[in-house]
Amino acid sequence: MTMKFYMTPGSCSTAIHILLEEVDALFEVHLVNLLEGDNKKPDYLQLNPKGTIPTLVTDDGLILTDFQSIAWWIAKQHPKRQLLPLALEDECNALELMSYAVNTIHGHGFTRLFTTDKYSSNSAEHDAIRQQGQEIVMQAFNLLEPILAGRTTIFEQFSISDAALFYVLFWADRIHLDLPENCKTYYQGLLTRRAVKQVLSEEGYGAMFR
Description:
The protein is of the alpha+beta class. 51% of the residues lie in helices and 7% in strands. The chain starts with a strand and ends in an 8-residue tail after the last helix.
């Protein structure tokens, strides 16, 4: 059975796509159009009752429906790629950084920017909600700024934390947020990776490299 990867181009699933390419995994891509509500259709909800992306169905039938569990699974399945650092302290730090990107920068910051109406049905409040979201995102990047100084990857090897940070930095770039200098340099370095360039080209962002 070939792995099945359910994803939406340009979303958080882009980072999982990158991890799959980093380990040269064999998988089928199934596009989920969130704007058309594909994630709310019965067939998809039967697979992932949460209606979220990404979803990964492994070659032995395991269904994973959470960014962090999918990233961790990929890393554990391919230990030689060192997507999780070898030292326990570094592994814990990698998991912490991934969680911070997914839960705080994405879950509290970008959701306010991208899905503002979920926070209030009153349009008069939307500007304040978006402003709060931007403040959360920028506060997070400022916190990461000293950590990223002089780094092309967080640890010695590209890791799951780099993939998670990449997608939130990619979003910031797409909406023209003014990134702190170290964040910007780190992000530009990740853009040169083979897997990153391949995935972004496949997902329709090839113009970034012209």
